[in-house]
């Protein structure tokens, strides 16, 4: 009878250990799911920003082509804007790569 009691105690201890491991694994999974969702939101935000910057770049490029011959000062200004947009896009791409 004592031997059976010891086996039951051993089984009970192992079940408690498994339950504890399961609880830790579920908490870790929840943490990773939360982090994954956060990273997805950031990725979406940076993707949207990149798309916006690409659209601005396209519009500015078209405007530059239209004004290129008419106004050299305006062309210089637009070129600076384009350069800034390119830098912003590069920053977004770097952030996306590092996320």
Characterization of this structure:
With 99 residues, the protein is mainly alpha-helical. The protein has one domain (2-98). The protein is 94% helix and 0% strand. It has two helices and no strands. The chain has helices at 2-67, 72-98. The protein is rod-shaped, with a radius of gyration of 30 Å.
Features:
94% helix; mainly alpha; 0% strand; 99 residues
Dominant shape: rod-shaped
Range of strand content: under 5%
Give average pLDDT, whole number. Answer: 86
Give the biggest sheet.
Answer: none
Structural class: mainly alpha
Uncertain stretches of 5 or more adjacent residues: none
Number of helices: 2
Task: Write a compact overview of the structure shown.
The chain is mainly alpha-helical.
What is this structure's SSE topology?
Elements: H1 2-67, H2 72-98
